[in-house]
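Q: How would the structure tokens look for this protein?
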Amino acid sequence: MYFNQLAKEIGIGQQSILRHMRSLEDGGFVKTYEEKSNLGAPNRKYYCLSSTFSLTISMSQDSFSIANNQLIKKWILDNNNDNDDNNKQLTTLYKNSKSIPKGSVNDEITSVRKNLVSIENEISDLETRLNDLRVLKQIILRRLHKIGKDNFEHLERRILYRAITAQSSMSISKLAGVLNENESHIKDSVSILQKHLNKDNIRMLFSWN
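A: Here is the predicted structure in token form.
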């Protein structure tokens, strides 16, 4: 769609659409292309998604996260491993979706509907399990916050939470950037934290030492 169509579809002003689409384009979510207008007007700028993705927002009293997952799986492009039960199930669904027989419109619609229902059921089962895991995660994070509140000051808690939940270690300078704090304040707080922790926890949480 071009911006006038988007504005009409969503029901907000054209200037707001242009501003939001610029942000989405800068973030890599959408891309643009131009086509000639049939009315002799200047070329029209169209917007479309730049990729297929799933945007997941998870919020609770104890955590907040956003995940942008690209919806491209290697097993779809190059399926060489059928040993895993999950892969077998996904492969079956994939093969079924790719082998919808061509025939009458009614037969094709029936087959498409059947495949969609199977996939939606799988998604529903997985989302139920994900929600159960998020509940468990919240229980653990609540315990972490209780430990932090009872033993450490505000900046020390922020550093501790970041160190425990981070998927990879961060240097002092990177930690300062993520937390938007002065490096010297980060160093001082890390030193205080380390006085409360044993060597194993220090090594696990602060691997630059």
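The chain has a mean pLDDT of 84.

Residues 53-131 form one domain.

Upvote if useful.
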